[in-house]
Amino acid sequence: MTGRAIVTGGGIGGLAAAVALHRIGWQATVLERAPELREIGAGMSQAPNAMRALDALGVGEQARAAGVPTYSATNLLLPDGRHLQRARPGEATPLLAFHRADLHRVLLEAVPPGWVRTGAQVTGVRQDERAVTVTWNGGQATADLVIGADGIHSTVRRLLWPDAPSPRYLGRTAWLGVTSAVDLPGSITMGPGAYFLIHPLGGDRAYWAYVTTSPQPAVRYDDEKAEAAHRVRGWHDPIPALIAATPPEAVIHVDICDLDPLPTYVRGRVALLGDAAHAMSPDRGQGAGQSIEDAVVLAAALAGEPGLDEALRRYDAERRPRTQATVRGARADGRRSTSPALHKLMTTMIRLVPGPVWRKGLNPDGNATWRWRPPSLPAPPVHS
Question: Per the record, which residues fall in region Disordered (predicted)?
Answer without folding.
Answer: 318-341, 364-384
